[in-house]
Amino acid sequence: MPGARPSLLYVTDLAYQARGRRYCDEDIHLASRLRAHFDLALCHPLDTAALMDGFDAVVVRNSGPVLAYRHAYDAFRARALATGARVYNPLTGKADMAGKQYLLDLTAAGFPVIPTVDRAEDLHLLPSAERYVVKPKLGADSLGLRIVPGDRLRELATGDRLGELATGEILVQPCVDFAYEVSFYFVDDDFQYALYAPDPGRRWELRPYQATAADLEFARRFVDWNDLGHGIQRVDACRAPDGGLLLVELEDLNPYLSLDALPEEGRDAFVTAFTASLGRFVRGALSPA
Description:
- By secondary structure, the chain is α/β, with parallel strands linked by helices.
- It is about 25% helix and about 20% strand.
- A five-stranded antiparallel beta sheet has the order 10-9-8-11-12, with helices on both faces.
- Strand 8 and strand 9 (about 190-195) form a beta hairpin.
- The radius of gyration is 20 Å and the shape is globular.
């Protein structure tokens, strides 16, 4: 129909409870702004596969950790790939969208990432530390994450029961004594803003951060590596004791944006960039990723 507006199925779990954040507020705000340009319906992640065929594109936003609905997410991915549905972010992401394997791949490739292993025989490759972070490969939002004292690290691979590292389902990293955490937010390949947590003990008490040229060069390495083409990505890093940045996480599935930490003009600028990106993606003005 001439003049018809593109339709979006906006995937979000408005009831998801996150520590220190209100995901629902962010999606209510974004959905209200997007309705000026698109026909839009909100959808719980459990219902996506059943409803997606009636829309021009599926937009995955604050849908919560996939661990909570793994079978439904796998069914959605399978249907989207089989039908050629347009999904934003595209399902080609190599980072958190595919689990935590990328942390191992980037470690092996020599990227500036917190050193990560998933096998008992590789524990010696990690730098010596008083504490280690242990987390599931398919984890998110700190689900399943725990801190293990250095003198107990070998218990992950030995003991009366099968060692946890023998299953290939957990990752081990040294616990870095960082100065602060900082996140860089991108729409498509364009940097939008950065936020940081000055107090390491208060991860989600964020303030605007003035990124340097070196900071952006660091963040862009990971965006370029992921080669997503379209979508929103969040590069999470920590400022290591030597002053450099190390990657903590590359979120390319449903990154929370912490828009409430931005001034009004910053939020407006992000919404403008997001809306323009969605318009290009849905209308196919750019080649698919």
